[in-house]
Amino acid sequence: MMSASNGTNRGKDLVEFLEAPTEEAEERSHTTPWKSDQGAALAEAVKRRSAQPDSPEAVAQAPTVNELVCFGAKLIGDHPRMTAPHVRARIHEHNQQQQSPADNDTVEAACDRVCKEYSVPLGLAEGEAAGVWAGCDAAILPELLALRPNEIVLPNDYAPYNCAAAHMMKHFAAERAMFMRANAVVQLIATKDPKDFTLQHVTPEGFCTRLDGHGRRVKGVVSLRGHKVGLALKPKRCSVDIAKKMLASEEVQLLPPIEMITHCSVLVEHDGTLRALGPGYNEQGGGILVLDNANPADVPLDKAVRAILDLTKEFKFATPADQSRAVASFIGPAIRMGQLLPGHALVSVVEADASQTGKSFLQALVRAVYNERGSDIAKRTGGVGSFAQEPANPNDQ
Known about the structure:
By secondary structure, the protein is α+β, with helices and mostly antiparallel strands. It folds into four domains: 4-117, no CATH class; 126-254, no CATH class; 260-290, no CATH class; 299-397, no CATH class. It contains 14 helices and eleven strands. The chain has helices at residues 4-18, 22-27, 36-51, 65-78, 84-96, 104-117, 126-132, 141-145, 161-175, 204-212, 240-247, 301-310, 320-337, 359-369, and strands at 151-153, 178-181, 184-190, 197-201, 217-224, 230-235, 260-262, 266-270, 273-277, 280-282, 288-290. Strands 1-5-6 form a three-stranded mixed beta sheet. The chain has a three-stranded antiparallel beta sheet with strand order 2-3-4. Strands 7-11-10 form a three-stranded mixed beta sheet, with no helix packed on it. α3 packs antiparallel against α4 (65-78), α4 (65-78) crosses α5 (84-96) and α5 packs antiparallel against α6. The two termini are 57 Å apart.
């Protein structure tokens, strides 16, 4: 937060750039909030600029992003507790009142800048707010509706468990920080490889520590004493008992489901056509998280066929049918991952009449196509010389 003197200087600078030519004003931006009187001066500068056009063509000129941002800044200065939906609605309304309104993309860009640079509370739509905070004490309801995006409220006598749980789960769902898998709450955990992640069950103790991470501010509703009367939000710490109740609530179903984590794009059927799921979380297939940052290239069919066949051309197969089954081992995982065919995961068995013929290399090629790493599973049965025999050196396992 800047000091008052710095804020005043910044406001003067903004007034000067608004009174400058259009090209210069477009190149400059602001990032510091100011007081309502400074916002009034900025709005007046915008008004003077629009009232004194440089040419007849400028009379019908649409508002720029900077001009709309200035209007939003004044709005926030006059109404500091206004939430994002109301700010966006007022900016759109102001734009429509202009002689030549700006296009929707310009207005949305201005709304995004205002909400981001001035940390406007996200708020909730009226219907959604009534559902999330129904049952809360009316005295604290205005504070709850003006929560910042990083603020979470713990349940107590003034904020029921179902209200607090719904708000928490919506928060974690928006951040993609927690998911639902087999009726259990899970989270992404990094493995020894920083590029690899796995799913881990969220324990009550882990839930408490998760709340305090990533800059979140955990608060609780308290009753004011002394000369102040009423309710207020104060910093609190989540207990293990509260975490157990949050994880056992029905509101955990608000978390997005997750079925698979993969390092490559997944091919799924969508509206009768094949679609490649790109990076990030995808709702298709019961929830698929693609960790790869690149979208797959669109390769012609004949080129793709040649590329797959080239992977097996240096192997000496006993029969052409064996080569066909080897090719199937390359495309089989994609079919199963995208649920294009029902059934369990495919099993590929490789045999050879001699050692060092490339059995392990063939399996490594299949994993490389999907950017995955394999896990060795040994059946520990048998006698001396079998996998049941423990090695003398534990490092040889």
